[in-house]
Specification:
Elements (H helix, E strand, L loop, with lengths): L2 E12 L2 E12 L3 E5 L6 H9 L6 E6 L2 E2 L10 E5 L10 H11 L4 H15 L14 H14 L4 E5 L7 H18 L2 E6 L2 H7 L2 E6 L2 E6 L1 H6 L4 H6 L6 E4 L4 E4 L5 E2 L11 E10 L3 E8 L2 E8 L9 E5 L6 E3 L12
Parallel strand pairs: 3-8, 3-9, 6-7, 7-8
Antiparallel strand pairs: 1-2, 1-4, 4-5, 9-10, 11-12, 12-18, 13-17, 14-15, 14-17, 15-16
Helix pairs in contact: 2-4, 3-4
The structure holds adenosine-5'-diphosphate and magnesium ion.
Length: about 325
């Protein structure tokens, strides 16, 4: 696999404050890469620099081996999908989808062929003569996707495209976008602050924190081997418990904590936790308590009610332990 997009030492400052500092990553052809991180960490700035909507202060951006920094956005052979859809309100769905192709003087029969295909792929058939004001959020986002599909650009940049949609639709659209991406063989850089989107859609995740990359890896590595306490506490729901120890910070995921005596027969081990809260969520209950001065969460199957103040014994398998340095929160080498 060849590197389709290569970003090297990318930096961008606003008023002498770094929004993006020395970012390096590569995206292979046909790969779906998520740029993940909390609000303000530099995701959109990075994406806009790739698109050519912002100029970096330093660093390079190569697409298919060519430096594109001096190319205008329209000459970078990429398409963009935004959270806001960016549709023209006075144009119909069809005209919105075809706008870019008309501007580029693509011949009419070809426009029609691309329109038909895109409309079918995103299921907009009955709506092509409507105006954006007559569409739901999900339909509007499909128009934006169709516009990106008809452009035939091999690289697609998406900035939080689903964050305006409700939970159920978001889940459907995740699957839809991923399958479109595979069908079309698109190379995608997908910005999101939602770890579930990143974990479920991406081949590779780049997690940003304050303009820097914390970790670049496949989703399962983020979960199994977070490189820092920041990553550990960003990925997972609820996030990993972090327990200060004399020589390190111990990490244990809530789903790996069990209550002794809970089908965990004969275990005379474990440590005491004072229960503070039980949060029933349907398939599981999240029990919050205190152990060794740290707040601990345990995910237990089904509905559980334990009184506040009750002391329970908790334990976890040694293999479920993660260790990080006290200073800097870096994963300790002995921990793999
Ligand atoms: P994200 O998309 O991850 O939420 P952004 O890339 O939009 O973050 O912003 C990164 C940082 O840069 C933030 O601190 C933001 O306030 C700042 N920033 C972004 N755009 C501008 C701008 N046009 N002027 C000044 N500061 C900006
Ligand atoms: Mg943003």
């Amino acid at each position: 696999m060849s590197s389709f997009l290569k970003v090297t030492n990318l930096c961008r400052y606003y008023d002498n404050v770094a929004a993006v500092q020395k970012i390096n990553f590569e995206v292979n052809e046909g790969e779906f890469v998520a740029l993940l991180g909390p609000s303000g960490c530099g995701k959109s700035t990075t994406l806009k620099m790739i698109a050519g909507l912002e100029q970096p202060d330093s660093g390079t951006i190569e697409i298919q081996g060519k430096n594109v920094l001096d190319r205008a956005p329209g000459k970078r052979n990429l398409s963009m999908v935004f959270q806001s859809y960016a549709l023209f309100p006075h144009l119909s769905v069809k005209e919105n989808i075809l706008f870019g192709l008309k501007a580029r003087k693509v011949p009419k029969p070809e426009r029609q062929a691309r329109l038909d295909k895109a409309v079918e792929m995103v299921g907009l058939g009955p709506h092509i003569n409507k105006k954006p004001g007559q569409l739901s959020g999900g339909q509007s986002q499909r128009v934006a996707l169709a516009r990106s599909i008809v452009s035939n650009a091999p690289l697609c940049l998406m900035d939080e495209p689903l964050s305006n949609l409700d939970t159920k639709l978001r889940a459907d659209m995740r699957t839809e976008i991923r399958s479109l991406q595979k069908q079309l063989g698109l190379t995608v850089v997908y910005v999101t602050h939602d770890q579930i989107e990143a974990m479920s859609m991406a081949d590779k995740i780049i997690l940003l924190n304050q303009g820097r990359i914390e970790q670049t890896a496949a989703p399962e590595h983020f979960y199994d081997k977070p490189l820092t306490t920041f990553v550990a506490s960003f990925i997972g729901h609820p996030p990993m418990n972090l327990i200060p120890q004399a020589d390190c910070v111990l990490g244990v995921r809530p789903e790996h904590v069990v209550i002794v005596g809970d089908g965990d027969i004969g275990a005379n081990t474990g440590v005491e936790m004072v229960v503070k809260e039980c949060d029933y969520q349907g398939s599981e209950t999240i029990v919050t308590g205190e152990y060794s001065g740290a707040e601990i969460k345990a995910c237990l199957a089904g509905k559980r009610s334990i009184d506040n103040g009750e002391v329970v014994k908790i334990r976890w398998e040694p293999a479920a332990e993660h260790r990080f340095s006290k200073q800097g929160g870096q994963r300790l080498k002995a921990d793999g």
